[in-house]
Design brief:
Elements lengths: L3 H20 L6 H30 L1
Keywords: Membrane, Transmembrane, Transmembrane helix
Protein name: Signal transduction histidine kinase
Length: 60
Amino acid sequence: MNDTGSIVLFTILAFSLALVLIMKKDTIPPQLKRMLALVAIVLVSCSFFLIAFSLLRAGG
């Protein structure tokens, strides 16, 4: 099963969310900012895991 396109899309979207949160940090309400930051951290962490997993699977 080849999920390379899905992994790339997920990675781009996760980093885009994090970038938007960083750029608009002054306009987002504090309570919403905290929850969105936690979601972005989880998504970026999953993205790194998926990248590492796909590289290991491609090498083996």
